[in-house]
Specification:
It is a single chain. This protein is α+β, with helices and mostly antiparallel strands. The protein has three domains: 30 residues, no CATH class; 89 residues, Roll (Pdz3 Domain); 229 residues, 2-enoyl-CoA Hydratase, Chain A, domain 1, CATH 3.90.226.10. The longest helix has 20 residues.
């Protein structure tokens, strides 16, 4: 009797504090679950291709389809996909510490992280990976090659590369290590005191990386800052909030999230005193999404930055991430976010203050330049791709804007 009472009380407590679990006792839930099982069993028993009808495969495919058709940003991830997702957001993996990409259809080292096994072993930017261990990778994709380069910390891996500058093949054996890689990919100060930051995504260290870079640039005499969020697909919401916090006065609203019923789920405000940052121009384009739009929109709403470029993606939804015991995961759209002015950017995007549109060929050529000019001299680049490096008109307009702001401020104070 006491045990029955205990479970009965527990049942009612669960329904009070977890009302969404009432569906577990819904006839509709069990009716559809049983129907799904019935279909799965029939497919498993009768489909002509028995190699693709085991229950694990059917369940995985059904879940991917079910979640993936809800909206463009929800997805069910198998173990491999979920590990890749975690690497992107956590900025951490075990490997050799190199950035790879395609150069003339060859998987090539485009960057080496400081202090990484790749750098210490003597690999160089521009080396073409032709084998990993005993596996010939000359016809592999970047993703296939990266899968071979990653592994357990302290495990050994042998790379065979072709070094174009010497026209010879070389082998290197190195031990994989835990690698923390930056989301902030470019930082520099030009001769006129204009600082430049390019953030690739919003990972767990983005706020710290940006703060360190701004402090360094201020120490070098920075007069204005260009914050490049073009092509930034977003990332962690909390990092978007913390990055915006670096620029805004304490107490300023950064973003509001609302659930599916339209009720406010959360308000995020700037909590820290802002960094000493000079005038800011933010670059956005059709590839700037989610967290990038939150930062750009918040700085625009509070008059903290001028936005230059093109209208952003318009991803105004928040994804909750779930991890399952089998190693799989799920991203599920669970809320919508609104900028400080109350506007939503969902499906409309953030509009720049100064529009500078690039043609598709310009965008492709600039993307090619950003990756390949790290490896090639300008003459070699021109000979290989058939065109001379072109000017970045959006970046040039951002510089012009900053010079105008600085001139106005100097004269306004005189």
């Amino acid at each position: 009797m006491a045990i029955a009472t205990f479970f009965l009380v527990g049942f009612f407590v669960m329904l009070v504090f977890y009302p969404h679990r009432r569906d577990l006792f819904s006839p509709a839930f069990w009716r559809n679950l049983m129907h799904a099982g019935e279909v799965m069993q029939l497919v498993n028993e009768h489909h002509v291709d028995a190699g693709h009808t085991d229950y694990d495969t059917l369940t995985r495919n059904a879940l991917k389809q079910m979640v993936g058709t809800l909206d463009p940003y929800s997805s069910y991830m198998d173990r491999e996909d979920y590990e890749d997702f975690e690497i992107q957001t956590e900025q951490h993996y075990a490997g050799i510490g190199a950035e790879v990409g395609l150069l003339d259809s060859r998987v090539t080292l485009l960057g080496l992280f400081p202090g990484s096994p790749a750098e210490e072993a003597g690999l160089l930017v521009g080396d073409e990976i032709i084998a990993v261990g005993e596996t010939d990778t000359r016809d592999f994709t970047v993703s296939q090659t990266v899968d071979l380069l990653r592994g357990e910390p302290d495990s050994a891996v042998t790379l065979t590369v072709h070094r174009p500058m010497d026209d010879r093949d070389m082998s290197f054996t190195l031990n994989r290590r835990d690698i923390d890689y930056p989301s902030l990919r470019e930082v520099y100060l030009d001769e006129e005191g204009i600082g430049y930051l390019r953030l690739d995504s919003f990972g767990r260290e983005s706020r710290n990386e940006i703060e360190e870079a701004i402090v360094m640039l201020n120490g070098q005499g920075m007069r204005g800052l260009i914050f490049d969020l073009r092509g930034n697909p977003g990332g962690l919401l909390n990092q978007a909030i913390e990055v915006a916090d670096l620029f805004l006065e304490r107490g300023k609203l950064i973003v509001t999230t609302k659930d599916r019923s339209g009720q406010v789920r959360d308000h995020a405000y700037a909590e820290e005193a802002p960094l000493d940052v000079p005038p800011v121009v933010v670059l956005i384009d059709h590839g700037s999404a989610s967290a990038a739009e939150i930062v750009a929109g918040a700085l625009q709403d509070h008059g903290r930055a001028v936005l230059v470029g093109e209208t952003s993606v318009g991803k105004g939804s928040v994804q909750s991430v779930y991890a399952f015991s089998n190693g799989n995961g799920m991203r599920l759209t669970s809320a919508m976010y609104f900028l400080p002015s109350g506007r939503t950017i969902h499906e409309s995007g953030v509009e720049p203050d100064i529009r500078v549109a690039l043609s598709t060929p310009e965008q492709m050529n600039l993307a090619l330049q950003r990756s390949q000019l790290r490896v090639l001299e300008e003459d070699s680049f021109t000979a290989r791709y058939g065109f001379e490096p072109i000017p970045d008109r959006q970046l040039a307009r951002a510089r012009e804007m900053l010079h105008g702001i600085l001139f106005y401020e100097a004269n306004d104070h005189d």
